[in-house]
Every structure is written in structure tokens, then in C-alpha cells.
Amino acid sequence: MPDPICPLCHRPIPHDVKQSVHHLVPKLKGGKGGPTVLLHHICHREIHATLTEAELARDFATPEALRAHPRLAKFIAWVARRPPGFQSKIPGRMRKR
């Protein structure tokens, strides 16, 4: 069975790489039980380092909307040049609030 594809960066997600389930509408904003997507852990962390829960719920509840965000688009261009199993130190705290 082929590896799933990350809907943010469009790279395969190998089974031995850290991965995360992202609620397209944050649970705190009514997304509990709503649609989710499987992402690389590094991609998931970048989403939450970039956007608040309110912004995610209001304007970025689809992979297409996330990819269109200027900062995430820059991150995607950067991470797309890395192998699918690439992991990096990621910020421990949210950078934009």
C-alpha cells in the first residue's frame, strides 16, 4: 500500500515518520467530530505556529486555503525540497498571535 500524501506539502508520509491528524476546524471552535486530514508532524506544527484557532476556523478550514496563506506557502516551498522523512527542530511556541 502506498504512503499517504500530505495535503499541505503534497509529499508522501512514510509510515515511520512522525505524523499528525489535523482537525480542519479546531475542536475548540466546533470541529470535534468534523473533518480531519493526516499531515507530516512538521507541517502540522507549522500550521499551528502560523495561525490562531480562530483564524483556522474562520478562514483556513481547507487544505487549499492553508496552502494559499503566504507564510505557509513559503514553508511549503522550503519543505518540498526535503525528503518525505525530513524532520527539523520546530518552534516550541506559537510565533504569531
Q: What kind of assembly state do the chains in view correspond to?
A: single chain
**Termini separation (Å)?**
40 Å
- Broad shape: globular
Please report the total strand number as a whole number: 2
Q: What Rg do the Cα atoms give?
A: 13 Å
Proportion of beta-strand residues: 5-15%
- Counting DSSP H or I runs of 4 or more residues, the number of helices is 4
| Major sheet characteristics | 2 strands, antiparallel
Task: Summarize model confidence as the mean pLDDT.
Answer: 89
Helix-strand pattern, N to C?
EEHHHH
Question: Widest sheet: strand order?
Answer: 1-2
Enumerate the spans where pLDDT stays under 50 for 5 or more consecutive residues: none
Proportion of residues in helical segments: 25-40%
Structural class: alpha+beta
Protein name: HNH endonuclease
Keywords: Endonuclease, Hydrolase, Nuclease
GO molecular function, one term: endonuclease activity
Organism: Sulfitobacter sabulilitoris
